[in-house]
Every structure is written in C-alpha cells, then in structure tokens.
Protein 1
Amino acid sequence: MSETEMTAEQAEGTRETILEVRDVTVAFGKNVVLDSLDLDVYRGEILGFVGGSGTGKSVLMRAILRLLRRQSGTIRILGHDYDTANEADRIKLDMRLGVLFQHGALFSALTVRENIQVPMREYLDLPQSLMDELTAVKIEMVGLDPSAGAKYPSELSGGMIKRAALARALALDPDIVFLDEPTSGLDPIGAAEFDELIAQLRDTLGLTVYMVTHDLDSLFSVCDRIAVLGQKKVLVSGTIAEMLEFDDPWVQSYFRGKRARTISGYPDGSGSNAEQYRTE
Ligand SMILES: Nc1ncnc2c1ncn2[C@@H]1O[C@H](COP(=O)(O)OP(=O)(O)OP(=O)(O)O)[C@@H](O)[C@H]1O
C-alpha cells in the first residue's frame, strides 16, 4: 500500500457521522420491535434501509424523527442529542432534517407552492416575495415545471406528487432527508428518474439521504450503503458486495434472489445494470 492510499478502516474513520443511533429499544406493550439497535449514517451518503415487512423500518424512522417514544437509547443528529438540547437548539435541529413520507402526504387543500411554504412559514420569518422566489428554486430543483406551483395535489401524477413532496422536504435546505419508500407506486421509468434525482441532489447539495425502500433497483443503482433490519437490530450494513457475502438466509434470498440477479445482471447478483434493466 502506498503512503497516499488508505485502508477501508482508515477511510471509515474520516467519515463524518451525521446520524448516530445507539442502543435504541422501542416496544409497544410487550411487543419489542427494536432491541438495542445501533446505526451510523455518514454525511453525503445515500443509505438504503431494508428489512422484511413488519420488522420495524417505519418505527425506527419515526423514533429518529421523534414521532414516537423509545424505551431507551440515544440518537444524535449532526452531533446533537435532541433529548438534552435546549428549545432553541431543538428548533435549529428540526430545520436541518427533511422528511418525505410514503404517498407524499401533501396537504390536499393547498397548492404545491403553498405546501412547500408550510415549513418556511413555520420556521422562517420571510416576506412573501422571497418565499415565492425560494419556492420557485425548489420546484426547479426537483425537475417540476414552474406551472406545477399553482396546482393542487389532485391535479398531479404520482411522480409529480413525489417530486412536490421532495421539494417541500428540501424547503429549509436540510442536511439530511428521510425518504419512506419514495419510489413505491411509481412505474419503473418514473422510479428510475426519481432515483436519478436523488443522486443528483446528493451530488450537487451534498445531501445525506436515509431511504427506507423495498426497491431493489434503487438499492443497486443509487445506494452507497445498505442497512438491513432483522432480529430487531441492524443485522448488517455495508455495500451491495458486502450484502452478497453476508451469511444470513433473508439477506441471501433478498440480494441473491431471482429478481436481484435480473437487476444486477450477473448470475451471482454482483455488478449492476439496473438502469439498463429499468429502461428496457
Ligand atoms: N403505533 C403502534 N402501536 C403498536 N404497534 C405498532 C405501532 N407502530 C408499529 N407497530 C408495530 O411495530 C412493528 C413494525 O412495524 P413497522 O411499520 O415499522 O414495519 P415495517 O418494517 O415498516 O413494515 P413494512 O415494510 O411492511 O412497511 C409491527 O409489528 C407493527 O404492528
């Protein structure tokens, strides 16, 4: 190894942990869903979070976003522990997170422009003209036509709703966005375009992306790392190559199953021609 090369461990040491989950337990009555779970998310990465149905992916995301109570453990976002932060710091922290819930979850009685301005009104004190300018930038950023701003969610296609919801998640220029199954309900071309948009935003804005997904195409084409939830913990996290090597029946059948092999383009599931697969 030359002096300028780094080992994988050294490279890992230089990454900034933007989200640190330690020893988190969440239970509903006697039903323990997450048990002493640990997870790290690094700045600028796209992390795909997968696991069988009902394993607790949404519960973890909601626990991180403080939408439900956990029994124990610590969650540090951008180095801050929300539990011990004062009110002013909590608000600052909230502003650095963006969320796109499944199905978009736009307010149906508001136009796209008004939807995007909801977080701006909540957290910023800006004149309407400036909010309008910022909104136009967000609409362009997610690849929507400027005319979409005046439309109501019922007038938009599924793909446009996802983009509008993403624009709202980006309204306050967050450091990290949480996406709950962002490509579900989209056709393969729409899903591939949405993945491309996510990768583009990561590259241009340095955004960190935490994506709960069942979409193998997304995992193979845009995710830098994958974390697998199983047995109430993060069973394994790493690259696709590391998933393929991991000795667990669910992980093996998920990443080496017939569909995964078709997407990856190689008999053993390695490599990736997901984009080609999708547009065929
Ligand atoms: N508010 C709640 N009260 C009681 N139990 C809950 C609650 N929310 C989730 N659960 C339970 O937690 C478990 C995990 O649910 P969760 O929705 O996180 O699964 P998931 O991994 O996101 O599944 P899917 O991929 O099917 O969306 C389930 O057993 C569910 O019934």
Protein 2
Amino acid sequence: MRQWLQLFSRRRAVQPALAVAPRLAERPSLPRAFCTSNHLRAQAQSHHTPSEVEKRIFQIPIERYRNFCIVAHVDHGKSTLSDRLLELTGTIQAGGNKQVLDKLDVERERGITVKAQTCSMIYNYKGDDYLLHLVDTPGHVDFRAEVSRSYVSSGGALLLVDASQGVQAQTVANFYLAFSQGLELIPVLNKVDLPHADTARSLEQMKENFELDPENAILVSAKTGLNVEAILPKVIENIPAPTGDPSKPLKLFLIDSWYSSFKGVVLLVRIFEGQIRAGDHLVSFATGRKYTVGEVGIQYPDQVPQSVLRAGQVGYVYFNPSMRKTQEAKLGDTYTKVGFERQVQPLPGFEEPKPMVFVAAFPVDQGDFEHLEDSINQLLLNDRSVTIQKEASQALGAGFRLGFLGTLHCSVFEDRLRQEHGASIIITPPTVPFQIKYRDGREVTITNPAEFPEGDHTKRDVAELREPYVLTTLTFPEEYLGRVIEICESNRGEQKSMEYFTATQVILKYEMPLAQLVDDFFGKLKSSTKGYATLDYEEADWRESNIVKLTLLVNKEPVDAVSRVLHESQVRHVGKQWVEKFKEHVDRQMFEVVIQAAVGRQVIARETIKPFRKDVLAKLHASDVSRRRKLLEKQKEGRKKLKAVGNVVIEHSAFQAFLAK
Ligand SMILES: Nc1nc2c(ncn2[C@@H]2O[C@H](COP(=O)(O)OP(=O)(O)OP(=O)(O)O)[C@@H](O)[C@H]2O)c(=O)[nH]1
C-alpha cells in the first residue's frame, strides 16, 4: 500500500495568490490546521496546565515567535519528526510513535498526511521562552494547495531528506516551492539509524540540487530521537520572527476552517495586526457578515483557550452564536473589528485549486440516497476542495458527481466515505474534464460524458475538442528503463527529457494526457518496476485532441452511467473490454440480450447473451403453499436490487462489479 501511495503522488501547479510578504521578515506566518470533531483528540496530552501555558505565552514578545514547516518527500519522516519536536518541548509526553498530527483515520491507516496540521510549542532557549508554530504538511502533491499555504505562512522550513533514499522527486518539487516563497531552509538528514542509510551521498545530493552546505545539515533519527535536540536552536537562530503590531486595529487572516458539531465552524487564523478577545465584534471583508467572538485559543496540540491572541500569533477562533456554514468561512478572507473597516486594508486571498478528476457516486440501494448525501456533506464540511453536483443515471438512479484535485485525493475521499460513514456506494472510474470550442465562439468545459455533444448535427457545431496534458516526472532504477518507456509511449506520452540522477537512477520526463494518467497508469508503472518507481506530475496545458464518446448499449438502450469520453485510438480496445466484461456480469434473460459499445451510430464491439428459460414456481407442487409464498417474497426482495435498462433487468451488483477497477 505504501509503495502504491508513493507512486500515487501528484504535482499540480496550484499557486497561492497571497502576494503579501514584501520582505522575508514581514512574511505572514499562516500554518493550516485540521480537525474533525471525532478525530480532534490528539492521543498525547500536554505536560503543562492550560493556565501555565497561557501565562508563559503572555510573556513572550513577537521577536521570540518562530513559524516553520517541514519540506519533504512522501514518507521521509515529517510526522515522526513533528512528534519528537512536540515531545522535546514538553508539548506532549514522550513515548512511542504517535503521529500526533495525523488525526484522520485514513492518515493513521495509510501512514500519510492528507491535511496540514498545526501545533504551537513553547521552547526555552538560552533562558528565554520562544513561541514556536509548527506545521506538518502533506507530502503528496494532490494536497499541494495545503502545502503552498503552509509555505506561504511560514518564515522558514526544515528540508528533510531520508538518508536511505536520498533526494526524491517531491523533495525537489517542494524545495522549489519553498525556495520561491523565500523560506529560510534548514537541511535535515533523517533516518540515519538505518543500516542502508547513505549519509555522504545524500549530503552530496543536497549540495548538488539545492546548493545547501553539507556542513549546515543536521543528521537525525526522528524514530530514535537521535540528535533531534540540535534542530530547534537552528530554527531560532536562522528563521526570522513574524512582524505585526498588537496596538494597531485588528487585521485577522483566515487560514483554514473546520466543523465541530459542538461549536459550529472553527476558524484557524493568523493575526497580522492588533489583538482579539472573546466578546469582540468582527466583520468579514469577503461577506460583510458580522460575528461576536466566543472563544480564542491555540492548538497545543489540542485546543487550549487563551484570553487574547496577538499580532504574529496563529490560533483558533469560535463565534458565539456560532458560524453554522463552512461556506461562510472563506479561506484567505480578512476580518477586522466592527467600525475599523475603513482603516484596514484586507489581504489578498488564496487561489482555490480546480478539481481535475471526477467520479460519479451512487448508493447501492436508492433508499440510501439521503444517507449518502448526508455522508458526503459531512465530509465536505472539512474538505471544500471537493466539488459536488447531483446526477441522475437511468441505470443507477440518483447520485452525485464529485470533483477532486487528483486521484489520491479522490481515493482518500472514497475511503473516508466508507470508513467514517459505512456508505455502500457504486463509484464510476475517474474521468478528466474536456474543453469544447463551438463554432459560434462558446467555450465549455465538461466534466460529465452526458454533456458531450452527440449526433452529427451537434458535432457540426464543434470547432475544436481539447483535453488536459500533464508533465510527468518518473524516477526509477535504470534496469526498468525499456519497460517504462514502453508504458509511456503506449499511453500517448511524448518524451521530453531523460537524465541520470545517480549512476543507476533515471529521471524521465514525459508529457501525456491526464486522461491516461488517471487510467491506472500508476498501477501499470508499479507492476513493471516492482514498485520502485516514483511519479510526480504538474499541469501542462490543454491540447486539441480527437476525443469521442463511447457508449455501452444493452439491447440498443444506452447505459448512461458507463459512457466515457476518450481518445479515438483507445476506442476499439476499451469497447471490446467493456462488452466482454459486462457480459460476464449480466444474467441470462428470457430473451436474447445484445451488448454493444458504440461511438455515435458506429458499433465498435458486440456480445450476445443467449435467452434462458426458468420458471421456478412451475416446478413446485401446487400444495406447497408456504414454499411458494417464500419464493415470491424472495423474488420481490430481489427486485429491489434490480435495475432496468430498456427491457433488460440487471442486478445492481452487475454494475458494481463492472465499474469496479
Ligand atoms: N528507521 C527510521 N524510520 C523512520 C524515521 N523517521 C520516520 N521513520 C519511519 O518512516 C515512515 C514514514 O514516516 P512519517 O513520519 O509518516 O513520514 P511523513 O513524511 O510524515 O509521511 P507523509 O505525511 O505521508 O508524507 C514511518 O514508518 C516512520 O516510522 C527514522 O529516523 N528512522
């Protein structure tokens, strides 16, 4: 699973639009936090009492605040190192690998960070207390928006590299992102306890790739705690403090929000100027709505209430009465106190990333529609990057079309839906958006095959069809080179460059359609490299393409939930696969069933299911009343699970099996 996830990383060019930070010293520190009501409780508890924490924080001037994050490739040890730092500062009690900041079930199970997490710490250095603010960011680039927001928010970062793996694709990608935002970087080499750790080579790579002096690198084992104490003094000495004036009118920036069933929407905020207390009246620049502050506090790692949050600090805010809808909390919004609107200049917000991978989800039993809707809405409260639209399929009934930032994002959401809500759902394979340029000048982006222009007349109106391309970066051992090139070429890839990272590690860059990438490209790559390849990608552009809509027909009736927009070159292969696979899952009927795959009126592939006669009741003796009744009831129950496509009755499970990967 871990290898699979490693392959499943993705890079998207999501640029934060927060163009504040004219100088590094003035850079806003905007870490992100995330909690769900049920998973909020971190396992470990702080050593310090809340009043002790508040008293100490109150004494710390802004010059002794430090906001930083950890930049690393997937699995290089960010969450483990965060645990050690929290222990070292007495924020949590020592002992075991807790992954305190990985709060979601899916994060703990998969061992990946999905949401950026934040925690304040108090660290005594040379007799003075410092208020540190750490963000553990996700390594997977599907969650790139989280990462960039964390980077924008910090004054510096630990550049963490696993000494047994060296610099990897994500280290490079995340380094450039952090570097471009002017973060002060502190090189840290982790996992030096591993017998196959190659410290010298990793340091050399850090120098070659990032021009970071090996002399400055800190060699640690986050797992055993070896030398971790050397990190925080460097953070204090090298990372600049945030700036801000507590006596100015309040300028509060909304970094993140999540939903608590007890207190409504919780806001994670960074105070740029001024200070905030319970009872203050705030106004949002984005919505104009007014709120009264109910409580303010810090994440330590649980919420610890404070009487005041001051300029330079990052903390949480609840309103009273509470904010009920997460949509009201617009990430990147600025708030000030009522009456000061004219004196405060709002900060530029964040650019929201656009979804690029879409699936449709239907409840197995239509009676569960409302439950599925509730489940999805519950998850959306804490992940607003997912888009949702109602969808109706003739075969599968009412459902939803969901949009995600990437395939991992999609698969994580699906897992969370199943884990947290036990929903039994049918999910269609992922698709990507397509652009249609009409002759009359209209340009439309479609995310649902049902919107694809059909019929010769409509097609005559179309001037151009376009699909999204991505630039992929593949890193793998040299011995798999031939096989990897073969896979890329057969997925309509165009080679852009090939270089050797080390004597045996190849870095290959290919441009390819995103549609190919979401079509189990990772799976194919993984199986042909014994799981050794890593893959990263970023959006390239939209290109003109010969795309068509392939439809599955059952006795001439289209099965809408199965139709797909794809490149002409794939039509025969996919069409043949479809009819063969669908045939396997459809029971015989009283009449002949013809299954076809077609593009418009052109049939690409065909299979036939011979008729079958079975009259169960006829075989029973007339006096066998109770068995007869039982059979009729069973049939009635069974009918609930049936779907009709034209006159053909199909078991729900047939769709499930057909649409399963
Ligand atoms: N031997 C050894 N293992 C480590 C060390 N640090 C972390 N690990 C292990 O490496 C694996 C990944 O660690 P995480 O802390 O989850 O990595 P991460 O970078 O947070 O992962 P993502 O959040 O998914 O990007 C876990 O199994 C850790 O126990 C170390 O110093 N030595």
